[in-house]
């Protein structure tokens, strides 16, 4: 139970949302951990986000939200604090409800939100005790819970980093990564690569001017991003477009963040066995690109690996507990096999 006595609850929000695997993964996690928690899917677009956030702030039981499109950037305006990685990426996929623990004699003196700038201890904001020391929110009997604060994180980054590590091997930083696509998912891909020690990245974009924000994201992360125009028509290399074969051959890992069908032309080209692939799509599986890389003997990680790893990160943020990643993968695969 939460401090209010209500059953803990969280949800994934976005539009469309019916296809989301998040309820399956989170429910499997909480069952395995022995937590009697509720996790649902909420259809919500940008116009309804403010109402949802108000519910999370005021209704008992809420521990957090998972966010998908189109809410990952619009939610920034509603948060009290944002994790450094999420701020650099400019997108949040996880909202954590934090409640200050306040000693009764401190309430009138310090006022609401007086501990908002205190550090987190094991995912919980700390507060000043009567003696000036730091105490967690599970302290003395006179402790009660004060104002709600909403904190934003981005576990898409850690999920993507997990997949890259899986295909490259532990301890092997990306040397010549290639990102396909310049949408929102590419932001998390850049942050994952930077976090793993990459210094530069090539990026293929159908409309290079649209990739300008990604260059800025890369610069903020210490990552040099070189944008190339990407011809996805399948008619061959166009003027101003590099030969994709050269970029693929030079890459040690490719992160495909493009929508379904956009990489089909690349799938018809020879895939280098030495070039690992992280394909962010997961259904239907394998994609043509993933099948081509697998046929060439290259290491491949699919979008379900990323999804399960980012869900495990959300569970950690919500509960402070670790969940077996294979358990989440098994749960996701079982549902996808039935679709």
Secondary-structure topology with pairs:
Blueprint: E1 9-14, H1 22-33, E2 38-43, H2 49-58, E3 62-67, E4 81-82, H3 84-89, E5 94-102, H4 107-110, E6 120-121, E7 124-125, E8 127-128, E9 134-135, E10 144-153, H5 155-168, E11 177-180, H6 184-195, E12 200-205, H7 212-220, E13 224-229, H8 244-250, E14 253-256, H9 264-267, E15 276-279, H10 288-295, E16 300-301, H11 303-319, H12 325-338
Parallel strand pairs: 1-2, 1-3, 4-10, 11-12, 11-14, 12-13, 14-15, 15-16
Antiparallel strand pairs: 3-5, 5-10, 6-7, 8-9
Please give a structural write-up.
It contains twelve helices and 16 strands. The strands form four sheets. A six-stranded mixed β-sheet has the order 2-1-3-5-10-4, sandwiched between helices. Strands 13-12-11-14-15-16 form a six-stranded parallel β-sheet, sandwiched between helices. Strands 6-7 form a two-stranded antiparallel ribbon. Helix 1 (22-33) packs across helix 11, helix 5 (155-168) packs across helix 11 and helix 11 (303-319) packs across helix 12 (325-338). The chain has two domains: 9-153 and 308-338, Rossmann fold; 156-301, Rossmann fold (3-Layer(aba) Sandwich). Mean pLDDT is 86; it is low at 103-145. It is an alpha/beta fold and 339 residues long. The chain has helices spanning 22-33, 49-58, 84-89, 107-110, 155-168, 184-195, 212-220, 244-250, 264-267, 288-295, 303-319, 325-338, and strands spanning 9-14, 38-43, 62-67, 81-82, 94-102, 120-121, 124-125, 127-128, 134-135, 144-153, 177-180, 200-205, 224-229, 253-256, 276-279, 300-301. Helices cover 35% and strands 22% of the residues.
